[in-house]
Amino acid sequence: MSKMTNKLTQLKIEDRDLHTKTHELRDMGLIPGTMYGPNVENTPVRASELDLKKAISKTGEVYEVKSKKRTIFVKFEEIQRDPVSKELVHFSLVELPKGETNEVEVPIVAMGEPAGRKKGGVLVLMHDNITLSGTPKDMPAKVEIDVSGLDIAENLTVADMKLPKKVEAMMDMEEVIAICRPPAKEESTEEESSDEMMLES
Questions:
Q1: Backbone phi, then psi, for 49, in 5-degree steps?
Q2: In the chain, what are the domain boundaries?
Q3: What pLDDT, in 10s, does the model give residues 55-74?
Q4: CB 34 within 8 A of CB 97
Q5: Which of 11, 16, 59, 152 could form a disulfide with 121 if both were Cys (CB 3.0 to 4.6 A apart)?
Q6: What is the CATH number of domain 102-194?
């Protein structure tokens, strides 16, 4: 009922010259940042503001950063914004060692149209993200759930999600992820009937 997308988003960053002032970077459409970790020295970096916005808004927490020497996995440790304009000001990336287990938040994406929609049903996604535990190389960028088989009042739970063998969901397996709710009028009628039964009893 679901599938995972293992291809992680590549985040393009470059070493930053400390002599370049912040406003000069801004004029070039770049945002200053810092990258560090167990196997990475504290390094001043920079990245395209557009790339950062896309990465923050559309993907999960784990990213690939490629250099001439190697590929490392990172996540955002901190994202600073201007308190007034809300524009990006600075970012910090922390390395996730390849063999180390981490808990990261991954987006859930509903695919397809519920069968119950033809009867007036409404798809409700109960969770937009799910926390997974695993190593960076095994971590999916997102989890897609196929909702096309859902009829009215049917749901998908965490147990229905297909995850990589070495990745574990940090949520109750019976937790509902998506449900096809009946039309509002039908729900209202059911509630009224229930109230009438309670009054009669």
A1: -60, -40
A2: 8-95, 102-194
A3: 887 666 788 888 767 789 99
A4: no
A5: 152
A6: 2.170.120.20
